[in-house]
Protein backbone atom coordinates (compact mmCIF):
# COMPACT_ATOMS: atom_id res chain seq x y z
CA UNK A 1 0.00 0.00 0.00
CA UNK A 2 1.16 3.46 -0.81
CA UNK A 3 1.96 5.64 2.20
CA UNK A 4 1.65 9.38 2.61
CA UNK A 5 4.97 11.10 1.93
CA UNK A 6 4.81 14.48 0.22
CA UNK A 7 1.12 14.83 1.11
CA UNK A 8 -1.68 13.10 3.03
CA UNK A 9 -3.31 10.47 0.85
CA UNK A 10 -7.03 9.68 0.96
CA UNK A 11 -9.26 6.64 0.81
CA UNK A 12 -12.64 5.48 2.18
CA UNK A 13 -14.00 2.54 4.16
CA UNK A 14 -15.59 0.60 1.29
CA UNK A 15 -19.27 1.00 0.54
CA UNK A 16 -20.30 3.89 -1.73
CA UNK A 17 -23.80 4.91 -2.86
CA UNK A 18 -25.36 2.76 -5.57
CA UNK A 19 -26.98 4.33 -8.61
CA UNK A 20 -30.72 3.98 -9.21
CA UNK A 21 -30.01 1.57 -12.06
CA UNK A 22 -27.88 -0.68 -9.86
CA UNK A 23 -30.39 -0.67 -6.98
CA UNK A 24 -33.22 -1.54 -9.36
CA UNK A 25 -31.23 -4.36 -10.96
CA UNK A 26 -30.32 -5.82 -7.58
CA UNK A 27 -33.95 -5.67 -6.45
CA UNK A 28 -35.07 -7.48 -9.60
CA UNK A 29 -32.42 -10.17 -9.15
CA UNK A 30 -33.41 -10.61 -5.50
CA UNK A 31 -36.99 -11.16 -6.67
CA UNK A 32 -35.81 -13.96 -8.95
CA UNK A 33 -35.99 -12.00 -12.19
CA UNK A 34 -33.45 -12.22 -14.99
CA UNK A 35 -31.71 -8.89 -15.60
CA UNK A 36 -30.54 -8.68 -19.18
CA UNK A 37 -27.03 -7.28 -19.47
CA UNK A 38 -26.36 -7.59 -15.73
CA UNK A 39 -22.64 -8.30 -16.07
CA UNK A 40 -22.13 -5.35 -18.42
CA UNK A 41 -24.15 -3.04 -16.15
CA UNK A 42 -22.08 -3.95 -13.08
CA UNK A 43 -18.79 -3.54 -14.94
CA UNK A 44 -19.85 -0.12 -16.27
CA UNK A 45 -21.02 1.06 -12.85
CA UNK A 46 -17.73 0.08 -11.21
CA UNK A 47 -15.72 1.75 -13.99
CA UNK A 48 -17.71 4.99 -13.61
CA UNK A 49 -17.46 4.84 -9.83
CA UNK A 50 -13.68 4.49 -9.79
CA UNK A 51 -13.35 7.35 -12.29
CA UNK A 52 -15.53 9.54 -10.08
CA UNK A 53 -13.44 8.73 -7.01
CA UNK A 54 -10.33 9.88 -8.83
CA UNK A 55 -12.13 13.02 -10.03
CA UNK A 56 -12.82 14.10 -6.43
CA UNK A 57 -9.24 13.31 -5.44
CA UNK A 58 -9.51 9.92 -3.68
CA UNK A 59 -6.13 8.19 -3.97
CA UNK A 60 -6.79 4.61 -2.77
CA UNK A 61 -9.97 3.66 -4.60
CA UNK A 62 -12.40 0.78 -4.19
CA UNK A 63 -15.27 -0.83 -6.07
CA UNK A 64 -17.79 0.67 -3.64
CA UNK A 65 -18.85 -2.89 -2.74
CA UNK A 66 -20.99 -2.79 -5.88
CA UNK A 67 -20.80 -6.56 -6.24
CA UNK A 68 -22.43 -6.92 -2.82
CA UNK A 69 -26.14 -6.59 -3.55
CA UNK A 70 -28.02 -3.59 -2.17
CA UNK A 71 -31.73 -3.58 -3.03
CA UNK A 72 -32.62 -0.16 -1.59
CA UNK A 73 -30.76 3.16 -1.35
CA UNK A 74 -30.57 2.88 2.46
CA UNK A 75 -29.09 -0.47 3.46
CA UNK A 76 -26.83 -1.01 6.46
CA UNK A 77 -26.11 -4.69 5.96
CA UNK A 78 -24.85 -5.68 2.51
CA UNK A 79 -21.20 -5.58 3.65
CA UNK A 80 -22.09 -8.57 5.85
CA UNK A 81 -24.98 -10.40 4.23
CA UNK A 82 -23.24 -10.80 0.86
CA UNK A 83 -21.24 -13.77 2.15
CA UNK A 84 -24.37 -15.82 2.74
CA UNK A 85 -24.97 -15.90 -1.02
CA UNK A 86 -21.42 -17.19 -1.47
CA UNK A 87 -21.39 -19.97 1.13
CA UNK A 88 -22.78 -23.49 1.18
CA UNK A 89 -24.03 -25.07 4.41
CA UNK A 90 -26.60 -22.42 5.35
CA UNK A 91 -30.39 -22.46 5.63
CA UNK A 92 -32.85 -19.67 6.38
CA UNK A 93 -33.54 -19.28 10.08
CA UNK A 94 -37.28 -18.71 10.29
CA UNK A 95 -36.78 -17.59 13.88
CA UNK A 96 -35.01 -14.52 12.51
CA UNK A 97 -32.15 -14.66 15.01
CA UNK A 98 -28.99 -12.72 14.20
CA UNK A 99 -26.98 -14.71 16.70
CA UNK A 100 -28.00 -17.34 19.21
CA UNK A 101 -27.16 -17.28 22.88
CA UNK A 102 -23.78 -18.91 23.18
CA UNK A 103 -21.48 -19.68 26.08
CA UNK A 104 -17.73 -19.47 25.57
CA UNK A 105 -14.92 -20.85 27.64
CA UNK A 106 -13.81 -17.42 28.75
CA UNK A 107 -13.14 -16.49 32.39
CA UNK A 108 -16.49 -14.73 32.70
CA UNK A 109 -18.45 -17.24 30.59
CA UNK A 110 -19.81 -14.40 28.43
CA UNK A 111 -23.10 -14.67 26.59
CA UNK A 112 -23.57 -13.05 23.18
CA UNK A 113 -27.20 -12.11 22.57
CA UNK A 114 -29.13 -10.98 19.50
CA UNK A 115 -29.44 -7.67 17.68
CA UNK A 116 -32.66 -6.79 19.50
CA UNK A 117 -30.81 -7.13 22.80
CA UNK A 118 -28.18 -4.46 22.30
CA UNK A 119 -27.56 -2.68 25.58
CA UNK A 120 -27.70 0.61 23.66
CA UNK A 121 -31.23 -0.26 22.54
CA UNK A 122 -32.23 -1.15 26.07
CA UNK A 123 -30.93 2.18 27.37
CA UNK A 124 -32.82 4.12 24.66
CA UNK A 125 -35.84 1.86 24.20
CA UNK A 126 -38.27 4.73 23.54
CA UNK A 127 -36.05 6.24 20.84
CA UNK A 128 -35.39 2.91 19.13
CA UNK A 129 -39.15 2.16 19.20
CA UNK A 130 -40.25 5.49 17.72
CA UNK A 131 -40.67 5.72 13.92
CA UNK A 132 -39.90 9.46 14.15
CA UNK A 133 -36.57 9.12 15.99
CA UNK A 134 -34.40 8.38 12.98
CA UNK A 135 -33.08 5.20 14.65
CA UNK A 136 -36.27 3.12 14.57
CA UNK A 137 -35.63 -0.63 14.49
CA UNK A 138 -38.50 -2.59 12.97
CA UNK A 139 -38.88 -6.31 12.56
CA UNK A 140 -35.49 -7.95 11.91
CA UNK A 141 -34.93 -9.65 8.56
CA UNK A 142 -34.63 -13.40 8.36
CA UNK A 143 -31.00 -14.46 8.61
CA UNK A 144 -29.45 -17.80 7.72
CA UNK A 145 -28.17 -20.40 10.16
CA UNK A 146 -25.37 -22.92 9.81
CA UNK A 147 -26.91 -26.35 9.17
CA UNK A 148 -24.08 -28.18 7.38
CA UNK A 149 -20.38 -28.03 6.52
CA UNK A 150 -19.42 -24.55 5.32
CA UNK A 151 -17.89 -24.29 1.86
CA UNK A 152 -17.13 -21.24 -0.27
CA UNK A 153 -19.14 -21.13 -3.51
CA UNK A 154 -18.76 -17.48 -4.53
CA UNK A 155 -15.93 -17.94 -7.01
CA UNK A 156 -17.83 -16.50 -10.00
CA UNK A 157 -19.10 -13.45 -8.12
CA UNK A 158 -15.66 -12.79 -6.64
CA UNK A 159 -13.98 -13.18 -10.03
CA UNK A 160 -16.38 -10.59 -11.43
CA UNK A 161 -15.64 -8.19 -8.56
CA UNK A 162 -11.91 -8.57 -9.14
CA UNK A 163 -12.12 -8.22 -12.92
CA UNK A 164 -14.38 -5.16 -12.71
CA UNK A 165 -12.16 -3.32 -10.23
CA UNK A 166 -8.96 -4.34 -12.00
CA UNK A 167 -10.30 -2.97 -15.31
CA UNK A 168 -11.61 0.22 -13.71
CA UNK A 169 -8.33 0.87 -11.88
CA UNK A 170 -6.33 0.25 -15.03
CA UNK A 171 -8.57 2.69 -16.92
CA UNK A 172 -7.62 5.54 -14.57
CA UNK A 173 -4.01 4.43 -14.24
CA UNK A 174 -3.88 3.41 -10.59
CA UNK A 175 -2.69 0.30 -8.76
CA UNK A 176 -4.06 1.53 -5.43
CA UNK A 177 -7.39 -0.31 -5.46
CA UNK A 178 -8.99 -2.39 -2.72
CA UNK A 179 -11.77 -4.93 -2.29
CA UNK A 180 -13.52 -5.62 1.02
CA UNK A 181 -14.03 -9.10 2.45
CA UNK A 182 -15.64 -10.24 5.67
CA UNK A 183 -13.73 -11.43 8.76
CA UNK A 184 -14.48 -14.89 10.18
CA UNK A 185 -15.61 -13.40 13.48
CA UNK A 186 -18.20 -11.20 11.80
CA UNK A 187 -19.37 -13.98 9.49
CA UNK A 188 -19.94 -16.32 12.43
CA UNK A 189 -22.60 -14.17 14.10
CA UNK A 190 -25.50 -16.37 13.03
CA UNK A 191 -27.14 -19.40 14.59
CA UNK A 192 -25.04 -22.58 14.49
CA UNK A 193 -26.66 -26.01 14.38
CA UNK A 194 -23.76 -27.95 12.87
CA UNK A 195 -20.40 -27.23 14.53
CA UNK A 196 -19.78 -28.37 18.07
CA UNK A 197 -18.47 -25.13 19.53
CA UNK A 198 -17.44 -21.60 18.64
CA UNK A 199 -13.83 -22.56 17.98
CA UNK A 200 -14.87 -25.09 15.33
CA UNK A 201 -17.32 -22.60 13.83
CA UNK A 202 -14.67 -19.87 13.63
CA UNK A 203 -12.19 -22.27 12.03
CA UNK A 204 -14.76 -23.20 9.39
CA UNK A 205 -15.48 -19.57 8.58
CA UNK A 206 -11.74 -18.86 8.45
CA UNK A 207 -11.36 -21.54 5.77
CA UNK A 208 -14.29 -20.08 3.82
CA UNK A 209 -13.06 -16.50 3.95
CA UNK A 210 -9.47 -17.39 3.11
CA UNK A 211 -10.60 -18.21 -0.43
CA UNK A 212 -11.60 -14.57 -0.92
CA UNK A 213 -8.46 -13.25 0.76
CA UNK A 214 -6.10 -15.27 -1.41
CA UNK A 215 -7.93 -14.43 -4.65
CA UNK A 216 -7.90 -10.67 -3.99
CA UNK A 217 -4.20 -10.64 -3.10
CA UNK A 218 -3.23 -12.82 -6.07
CA UNK A 219 -5.07 -10.40 -8.37
CA UNK A 220 -2.69 -7.63 -7.28
CA UNK A 221 -5.37 -5.75 -5.33
CA UNK A 222 -5.41 -4.54 -1.74
CA UNK A 223 -7.52 -6.60 0.66
CA UNK A 224 -9.67 -4.88 3.27
CA UNK A 225 -11.02 -7.02 6.10
CA UNK A 226 -14.39 -5.80 7.37
CA UNK A 227 -14.83 -6.72 11.02
CA UNK A 228 -17.12 -4.49 13.11
CA UNK A 229 -17.75 -7.45 15.41
CA UNK A 230 -14.44 -7.01 17.24
CA UNK A 231 -15.67 -3.80 18.85
CA UNK A 232 -19.42 -4.11 18.25
CA UNK A 233 -19.95 -7.47 20.00
CA UNK A 234 -19.31 -5.75 23.33
CA UNK A 235 -22.72 -4.06 23.12
CA UNK A 236 -24.48 -7.42 22.73
CA UNK A 237 -23.20 -9.25 25.79
CA UNK A 238 -25.37 -9.54 28.88
CA UNK A 239 -24.49 -8.65 31.51
CA UNK A 240 -21.81 -6.13 30.53
CA UNK A 241 -18.61 -8.17 30.65
CA UNK A 242 -15.36 -7.36 32.35
CA UNK A 243 -12.86 -6.06 29.81
CA UNK A 244 -10.52 -8.99 30.46
CA UNK A 245 -13.32 -11.46 29.69
CA UNK A 246 -14.30 -9.62 26.54
CA UNK A 247 -10.73 -9.55 25.28
CA UNK A 248 -10.45 -13.30 25.84
CA UNK A 249 -13.66 -13.71 23.83
CA UNK A 250 -12.25 -11.45 21.12
CA UNK A 251 -8.86 -13.13 20.87
CA UNK A 252 -10.56 -16.26 19.53
CA UNK A 253 -11.83 -14.16 16.62
CA UNK A 254 -8.45 -12.54 16.02
CA UNK A 255 -6.76 -15.94 16.03
CA UNK A 256 -9.26 -17.20 13.44
CA UNK A 257 -8.62 -14.15 11.25
CA UNK A 258 -4.85 -14.46 11.48
CA UNK A 259 -5.17 -18.14 10.57
CA UNK A 260 -7.14 -17.17 7.48
CA UNK A 261 -4.48 -14.56 6.59
CA UNK A 262 -1.51 -16.87 7.12
CA UNK A 263 1.26 -16.41 4.58
CA UNK A 264 -0.36 -13.41 2.90
CA UNK A 265 1.59 -10.13 2.65
CA UNK A 266 0.50 -7.88 5.51
CA UNK A 267 1.51 -4.77 3.53
CA UNK A 268 -1.35 -5.55 1.11
CA UNK A 269 -3.95 -5.89 3.87
CA UNK A 270 -6.01 -3.29 5.71
CA UNK A 271 -8.35 -4.04 8.61
CA UNK A 272 -11.57 -2.10 9.24
CA UNK A 273 -12.63 -1.58 12.87
CA UNK A 274 -15.87 0.18 13.77
CA UNK A 275 -18.62 0.21 16.35
CA UNK A 276 -21.47 -0.51 13.94
CA UNK A 277 -22.86 1.77 11.26
CA UNK A 278 -26.36 2.20 12.65
CA UNK A 279 -27.26 5.78 13.64
CA UNK A 280 -27.86 5.28 17.36
CA UNK A 281 -26.58 6.89 20.59
CA UNK A 282 -23.73 4.34 21.00
CA UNK A 283 -23.48 5.03 24.74
CA UNK A 284 -22.52 1.41 25.45
CA UNK A 285 -19.62 1.30 22.98
CA UNK A 286 -16.31 -0.17 24.05
CA UNK A 287 -13.49 2.38 24.40
CA UNK A 288 -10.78 2.30 21.74
CA UNK A 289 -8.08 2.10 24.41
CA UNK A 290 -9.55 -1.20 25.61
CA UNK A 291 -9.41 -2.93 22.22
CA UNK A 292 -6.51 -1.24 20.40
CA UNK A 293 -3.82 -3.59 21.72
CA UNK A 294 -5.75 -6.62 20.45
CA UNK A 295 -6.40 -4.97 17.08
CA UNK A 296 -2.71 -4.27 16.61
CA UNK A 297 -1.98 -8.01 16.79
CA UNK A 298 -3.93 -8.60 13.56
CA UNK A 299 -1.72 -9.45 10.59
CA UNK A 300 -2.63 -6.34 8.60
CA UNK A 301 -0.33 -3.35 8.22
CA UNK A 302 -3.16 -0.81 7.96
CA UNK A 303 -5.98 -0.17 10.43
CA UNK A 304 -9.06 1.81 9.35
CA UNK A 305 -11.26 3.01 12.20
CA UNK A 306 -13.80 5.63 13.27
CA UNK A 307 -12.12 8.85 14.33
CA UNK A 308 -14.89 11.31 13.34
CA UNK A 309 -17.70 9.46 15.12
CA UNK A 310 -18.59 11.90 17.91
CA UNK A 311 -18.69 9.09 20.44
CA UNK A 312 -15.06 8.26 19.68
CA UNK A 313 -13.47 11.38 18.18
CA UNK A 314 -11.76 12.29 21.47
CA UNK A 315 -9.89 8.99 21.39
CA UNK A 316 -7.14 10.34 19.14
CA UNK A 317 -5.36 10.77 22.48
CA UNK A 318 -4.96 7.00 22.62
CA UNK A 319 -1.95 7.49 20.35
CA UNK A 320 -0.28 9.45 23.15
CA UNK A 321 -0.38 6.26 25.21
CA UNK A 322 -0.02 3.55 22.57
CA UNK A 323 2.98 3.40 20.23
CA UNK A 324 2.05 2.47 16.68
CA UNK A 325 4.19 -0.60 15.87
CA UNK A 326 6.81 -0.30 13.14
CA UNK A 327 5.28 -1.02 9.75
CA UNK A 328 1.72 -0.27 10.82
CA UNK A 329 -0.30 2.64 9.44
CA UNK A 330 -3.66 4.23 10.26
CA UNK A 331 -6.59 5.15 8.05
CA UNK A 332 -8.62 7.23 10.51
CA UNK A 333 -12.11 8.22 9.54
CA UNK A 334 -12.25 12.01 9.35
CA UNK A 335 -15.72 12.31 7.83
CA UNK A 336 -18.69 10.41 9.23
CA UNK A 337 -21.39 8.17 7.78
CA UNK A 338 -23.63 8.91 10.79
CA UNK A 339 -24.58 12.53 10.04
CA UNK A 340 -25.99 14.39 7.05
CA UNK A 341 -23.86 17.40 8.00
CA UNK A 342 -20.94 17.74 5.60
CA UNK A 343 -17.76 18.29 7.60
CA UNK A 344 -15.90 21.52 6.88
CA UNK A 345 -12.50 20.90 5.23
CA UNK A 346 -10.79 22.81 8.04
CA UNK A 347 -12.29 20.45 10.63
CA UNK A 348 -11.22 17.49 8.50
CA UNK A 349 -7.70 18.93 8.41
CA UNK A 350 -7.65 19.35 12.20
CA UNK A 351 -8.66 15.72 12.67
CA UNK A 352 -5.90 14.55 10.34
CA UNK A 353 -3.19 16.77 11.80
CA UNK A 354 -3.69 15.78 15.43
CA UNK A 355 -3.36 12.09 14.56
CA UNK A 356 -0.45 12.59 12.14
CA UNK A 357 1.43 14.58 14.80
CA UNK A 358 1.18 11.59 17.11
CA UNK A 359 2.01 8.68 14.78
CA UNK A 360 3.83 10.33 11.87
CA UNK A 361 2.56 11.77 8.61
CA UNK A 362 3.83 8.81 6.62
CA UNK A 363 1.65 6.52 8.76
CA UNK A 364 -1.67 8.28 8.07
CA UNK A 365 -4.09 8.02 5.14
CA UNK A 366 -7.28 10.06 5.59
CA UNK A 367 -10.47 8.03 5.24
CA UNK A 368 -14.13 7.78 6.22
CA UNK A 369 -15.49 6.36 9.47
CA UNK A 370 -17.44 3.63 7.73
CA UNK A 371 -18.97 3.00 4.33
CA UNK A 372 -21.05 5.91 3.04
CA UNK A 373 -23.15 3.77 0.70
CA UNK A 374 -26.54 2.96 2.21
CA UNK A 375 -26.01 5.33 5.14
CA UNK A 376 -26.36 8.83 3.66
CA UNK A 377 -27.82 10.18 0.42
CA UNK A 378 -25.56 9.93 -2.61
CA UNK A 379 -25.30 13.71 -3.04
CA UNK A 380 -24.22 14.09 0.58
CA UNK A 381 -21.77 11.18 0.36
CA UNK A 382 -19.93 12.70 -2.58
CA UNK A 383 -19.85 16.09 -0.85
CA UNK A 384 -18.25 14.39 2.14
CA UNK A 385 -15.61 12.78 -0.08
CA UNK A 386 -14.86 16.19 -1.60
CA UNK A 387 -14.49 17.65 1.88
CA UNK A 388 -12.22 14.73 2.77
CA UNK A 389 -9.81 15.42 -0.07
CA UNK A 390 -9.89 19.19 0.47
CA UNK A 391 -9.22 18.68 4.17
CA UNK A 392 -6.34 16.35 3.37
CA UNK A 393 -4.78 19.05 1.21
CA UNK A 394 -5.08 21.58 4.04
CA UNK A 395 -3.57 19.08 6.48
CA UNK A 396 -0.67 18.43 4.13
CA UNK A 397 0.14 22.15 4.07
CA UNK A 398 -0.11 22.42 7.87
CA UNK A 399 2.14 19.41 8.45
CA UNK A 400 4.83 20.82 6.12
CA UNK A 401 5.16 23.99 8.18
Short synopsis of the structure:
This protein is an alpha/beta fold.
Can you tell me about this structure?
The protein has 401 residues and is an alpha/beta fold. The chain has a single domain, classed as TIM Barrel (Alpha-Beta Barrel). 39% of the residues lie in helices and 14% in strands. The chain is built from 14 helices and 13 strands. It has helices at residues 20-30, 38-55, 78-81, 119-123, 125-129, 155-172, 184-187, 198-218, 229-232, 243-260, 288-295, 318-321, 345-359, 378-400, and strands at 9-10, 61-62, 87-92, 102-103, 111-112, 144-152, 177-182, 191-192, 222-226, 269-272, 302-305, 329-335, 365-368. The strands form three sheets. It has an eight-stranded parallel beta sheet with strand order 1-13-12-11-10-9-7-2. A three-stranded mixed beta sheet has the order 3-6-8, with helices on one face. Strands 4-5 form a two-stranded antiparallel sheet. β4 and β5 form a beta hairpin. It is globular and about 60 Å long. The two termini are 26 Å apart. 44% of the residues are buried. InterPro entries: Met_Synth_C/arc, UROD/MetE-like_sf. One of its GO terms (biological process) is methionine biosynthetic process. This is Methionine synthase. GO terms for molecular function: 5-methyltetrahydropteroyltriglutamate-homocysteine S-methyltransferase activity; zinc ion binding. Residues 204-390 form the Cobalamin-independent methionine synthase MetE C-terminal/archaeal domain.
Amino acid sequence: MRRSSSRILTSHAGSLPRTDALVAANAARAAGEEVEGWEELLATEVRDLVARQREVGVDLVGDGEYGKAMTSPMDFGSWWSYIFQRTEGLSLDEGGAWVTDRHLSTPGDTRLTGFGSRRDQQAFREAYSSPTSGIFVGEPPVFPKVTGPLRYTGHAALAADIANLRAAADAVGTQDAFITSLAPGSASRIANEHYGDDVALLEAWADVMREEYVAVIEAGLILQIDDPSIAENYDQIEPEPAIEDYLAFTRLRVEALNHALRGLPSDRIRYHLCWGSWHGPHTTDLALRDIVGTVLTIDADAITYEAANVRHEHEYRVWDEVALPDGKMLLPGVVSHATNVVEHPELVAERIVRIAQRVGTENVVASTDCGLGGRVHSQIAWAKLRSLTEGAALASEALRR
